[in-house]
């Protein structure tokens, strides 16, 4: 093997030499493009400064400026492409590849291919490196030696896989090298997982596992449901899947056509480096709260976290109502209501301008009623909008010839005149009268711009009142609370999806057909009603839903198969498929074994064989002692690990602990609006830690009082599963029965602490 290693290192050196020569060439081209952009920009600035007094000169300058603006944009684009190439080559220079496969097609010679994060050709067009997403590369992830199949655009192909080799190359030097018959051998994975956590998530392309590869390369399903245990690589799989899809459909798909719903802002930031590290642009990211808030302007939307925190205090009746509002049945009721809503019950509203009514609600209703009753509501609504716009056009035309506007025209300053003229110039008009009529229209249009806007945005229809009226009829028990909230400009999370669904159905708006893929991470936190609404909004998108029902913080967990059939039916999927991920990569074997024991069906979880210390329960007698224990453990862990989190059940607890600790230790309290993870010790409630991981996790109080029964199991499991290397649980008094019923060998116990 030593000889082989030398040969491989020689090849690495040769490839790096080629990369360096391409780097030099690209740097030159980049510099040239950059200089050109600067010179065009300079020209542009100068032209924009001169010749702006005389009208004719100004027109000429305008045209020139437009041309130069386009030139600048084009140059910037070229510069951007070259910059991306430089980044890719820079990454390849450090780690040109991570895998090698030797294959033999029937009747052909043996071929050796090297696989890396991007492809590289020499000037003879020989492939020195194959992109990990190329069809042939799937053999590396999927196949064991022997006859293997792989998908290509031309159909399924077969080849003989003769050798599979893995490399760990750092800064151009082979650190490790293995021949393997496994998918991706454990040794390399082990060394990757041993590393300490980072501020940002890393790509996993060198060590993708077979089950993950099936998720990443799935192009057939319109609903792909991934259920994976904590730390099994669901989030990693989504991100590599996005990179794969962008490569696979590069002629038709771009990153702007992909939306990812992520659990919180910290998470959005945490994953933001993965796609750029693979040479791709990030997809759009949004949290459910941001999404609803943008669509419900003027209202304070209850966040998922507020929803969680208040759900403990709901009465039985309120809980029942809440779960009904989350159900597909409720969305069905909304749909039926919208389909049969009589014109007399539509909540139109007056359209006014500076106190003057432009269209009264009665007039609007009258127009609406004048359309044939057999038209669908949405068509009638659109027809109404058109009719109102036409009426507005006539109103504006009339206003343009009014005395008021004629007077204004006479008193226009030079500046106002040119501004109204805009792109036109004097020569565009055949007469002075025509020019004046044009300018008069411009003034009138400006005056009525808000009304055009109001019509465009359906402001002649009061969606909030309409939903109230719907509740009054179909769910009267809920009306009072809704109205009260509305008075304070608030809306509960449960009301968002049905209200928006009703509005969209009635007004035929709110849909975005340009999105081709919708990803939802932590899907167990979404109600079916919310899913129905998202499917309605992104009607043309294929769905990838990822979750772990054991991490449902406040709801019942569901079996994956039941969940798939429920979702397929509700979302009317034609080709749905379910993928399960049972192996947990995040935590040491000891932590995973502890976590899995917490779950009734945890036996199916496989831990990755990475040794570490057992989780520790630190039992103390009272609150004061718990602070001392926390202080000691946090201090110790912060010395040993780069990321340490003190995770609590809720924000109130996080704040209390922060108050107690921040003068003694460098701790940071994380809140909902935070976007970055601090170095050192973070204090945060579990719902903000969703999707994240830390080297060391300290749990504040796992006592029987705090976690009395199985209803709190999801929270405890989710907290513990954030830990990679160390898990310490402080308990004031007797620990939770969820813990004491476990095999005592799964954790260590520390009764008292010596205080220095
Ligand atoms: N194939 C792999 N190779 C290397 N690391 C991996 C692999 N799969 C997962 N990991 C690592 O395991 C950790 C957990 O992955 P990830 O966050 O994607 O899991 P998850 O299923 O989304 O977790 P959770 O649901 O608990 O938030 C990450 O550090 C990730 O880099």
From TrEMBL:
Keyword terms of this UniProt record: ATP-binding, Coiled coil, Helicase, Hydrolase, Nucleotide-binding
InterPro entries tied to this protein: DNA_helicase_UvrD/REP, HelD_bacillota, P-loop_NTPase, UvrD-like_ATP-bd, UvrD-like_helicase_C
Binding site for ATP: 228-235
Gene3D superfamilies noted in UniProt: P-loop containing nucleotide triphosphate hydrolases (3.40.50.300)
Regions annotated as coiled coil: 9-43
Domain of life assignment: Bacteria
SUPFAM superfamilies in alphabetical order: P-loop containing nucleoside triphosphate hydrolases
GO MF term (any one): helicase activity
UniProt domain UvrD-like helicase ATP-binding: residue ranges: 207-588
Name used for this protein in its record: ATP-dependent DNA helicase
Species per Swiss-Prot/TrEMBL record: Ligilactobacillus acidipiscis DSM 15836
